[in-house]
Structure formats: C-alpha cells, structure tokens
Amino acid sequence: MIFQKLFLHSVPTCLIFFTIVTPSSGQVIRDGTVGPDATVQPIEIGNNIEVGEGLGLRMGTNGQVLLHSFSEFSINENQQVSFTGDSSISSVISRVTGDNPSTINGKLVSNISGADFFLLNPRGVIFGADSSIDVNGTFSVSTADSLVFDNGESIQVYSGESLPILTSATPESFGFLSSSQGAVVMNGGG
Q: DSSP letter string over 39-76?
C-alpha cells in the first residue's frame, strides 16, 4: 500500500518534467557535422527552443564565428528559436543540409549582442505572415550553397569540405554551385 501511494505521487512529477523539458523534436534538428554528435539536440521548453553555442563550432583565431549545422530548420507558429552565446561572437552561421526548405512561422532570435546572423538553406526559406526576426546585428538569408569570406575561404552547406577553422575573415558573399536553388519567400500581411 505504501508503494502504491509513492508510485502514484511520483508518476505525475515525472510526467510533468518530461512535458516541460524535452529534446527538440521535429523542426530544429542538428545534423551532428559540427559540435557534438547528432544525438545532442537543442532543448525545447514549452514553445521555446534554445540553440546554445555549445551545439555549434567556434571558428576563427579568436572564435568570433559560430557555425551551426542542421538537417532540418523550421519554426512553427507560436514557437521561438533562440541562439545564445558569448558576446565575443561576431557572426552566427546556420546552415541547413537536409532536403527540405525552412519554414519560419514563429520567431527567430539571436541573443548574441551585435552578432550578424546568416541562415543558409539551398532548398529554400519561407517566411510566414506571423514570422518575426529579432537579431541585434545584420540578418542575411540565402539559398546559396556556400558562404564566402573576404579572405577567399568558404563554408559549404553540404558537409564533406573541410571547414576554415582558423579563419578570422568576415563573411562577404554567397556562393551558388547550381541553378536549382530554392527560393526565399516572404508571406507577410498588409
């Protein structure tokens, strides 16, 4: 009888914990090519997903460029995806290596003060009418296959190329390898 009471009181506590803090499932999925392996995913708390700097790769002589790599990156309506990291980061690069376009129907936030944010998905990026962007630096979105730095080095969207780990250059232009790129679509109201 005591065991039953304890068990009944413990189960709801566990259920509450797992419904409040669970790994992100579905729309923001790391591919594991940079940072920890793919078993480590962003944490979802309610409608908020936090993508911390520890999930990516710091690049550059002073680690001022932060690279994240996703197999899927979409934000649902009423959902917020927040990128966090040290204030010494000047650029956040998020590449999408999967086969689907990104659909942004919620809020994309960078809590890294002054950092520029780059979202690359060659399959396309669709911004819904209720989407919003909250980035303290410049926001750039592209269907490019690569991001080229001002010193000539580049980051390819599709992994297999070596990353310019020691670059301290500034992202300068986008590289396109084929004419079959997706589109960037803005479905705003008004």
A: T---EEETTEEEE-GGGSEEESTTS-EEEEEEEEE-B-
